[in-house]
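Continuing the series of single-chain predictions for the mutant panel. This is the parent chain; the variants come on the following pages.
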Amino acid sequence: MKKLSLCGVFLTFALVLGGCPTGSPSTPASGNLGEDKALDLKGDVYTVEWEGSASNPTKVTYTKAATAFDGTVTSNLGGTGEIKNGKLTFKIDPPAALTNDLTNAVVNAIPVNNGNDLSDYYSNVKVTPVTAKYATLSLSVGSKSLDYEKVGISSSDTSYMYQEEGISYLCLSADVTVTGDKKEPWTSSNLNMTLKKGWNIIYSKFVYKVSNGETTYSFTMKDEQHSLRWVVDD
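Parent structure:
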């Protein structure tokens, strides 16, 4: 996906843990599936075109991919899937063995919407217990990645708004709690997120606004109604 760069104030996009399509009969839009349940992902596949500069995109257009990317879908953790006639199907069980330690350092470094780390939006980010193991899911078709996301842009003579949403997948060996203190101007409330053993589906949204010369930012990990799309990224 194209990255947004705002004059050094903030750089780029993403929540690194995966995606779940709206309308999928098997997988909810967010939350925990249960420790033994598989992710069952389905949805139309899109390409994206941008207008404007990297630091000031003015328009984003999504187009259904038809058959251009039909083929086998792979992941860093196994599973089976394909894109056929422009539609994604992919299924993966929880990995048999999780070996990566979910430490405080790892939690602080989790990339979230706009490419910054979780610690850029919250201070004193901690995970309890630190003995949990984890894995994150990444999908690809050929040499291109597949991400579940959506960008919205609106502008006028006096205002500009850039909004980016994404969903990611994290598999855990045990229940954990992630906490953090709010960090202005990015967040207005503290972080208190409970994640469960098995697959977790995590939503985030970043909004950047300029209106009559005043700039505001907001970031949330609270799930809401959304219509995200599977996007083939370079």
